[in-house]
Amino acid sequence: MTQKERYAFVLKYFETHAPNAETELIYDNPYQLLVAVILSAQCTDKRVNMTTPAIFAQYPDVYALSTATFDDLFPLIRSISYPNNKTKHLIGMAQMVVQDFNGEIPATVPELIKLPGVGRKTANVITSVVHQQPNMAVDTHVFRVSARIGLTVNAKTPLQTELQLLKNIPEEKVHIAHHWLILHGRYVCVARSPKCGECGLRPACKYYAKLVKAS
Questions:
Q1: Helix, strand or coil for residue 60?
Q2: Residues taking part in catalysis
Q3: If you average pLDDT over residues 126-137, what whole number do you get?
Q4: Which of 34, 50, 115, 152 is least surrounded by Cβ atoms within 10 Å, i.e. has the fewest?
Q5: Quick one: average pLDDT of 173-178?
Q6: How far is Cα 7 from Cα 104, in angstroms, rounded to an integer?
Q7: 196 assigned ligand-binding residue
Q8: How high is the pLDDT of residue 122?
């Protein structure tokens, strides 16, 4: 199977079996999504979704969050990984959005990565989910799944993975392909014991082909 054929197979499979894939983070607007994504770094979406309602109740918009103190916000995210840093990042993010962006969450990657706690992956998530821009956020799931299937070749960094995926996925499908790969990695192509027996991508998967050859 050529690389072009592999991409065609994988995209067709997901289009058929997961046409409405979307983020599992619960949010109502760009502000809430940005807070949730910042909190989600090295933390499960389930835990984030348990935590954000109290934050949004007390800080319903970026203006309210910009006035928060560390001591007031920290108890609300104590159960999240790296709560000290994330508390500082959320307050700093909100203050910069208010001061530099007139209270509007930026809509471009270069602007978003200026915000505290926002790296390339987070910026790609926001622009992809909110604005359906053709940006590919590469987390551990996307990195692992892409390499296992063979969508990427010798990609050593998230950026290398991102660039290879963008080169081969049609622009109009990039924003949903991000969710396809994340969810596949979260529930099927899991890290330690991938569920190859129930995976519909086996005909196109290099990892599975090696398993068959070795057996």
A1: coil
A2: 121, 139
A3: 93
A4: 50
A5: 94
A6: 37
A7: yes
A8: 94
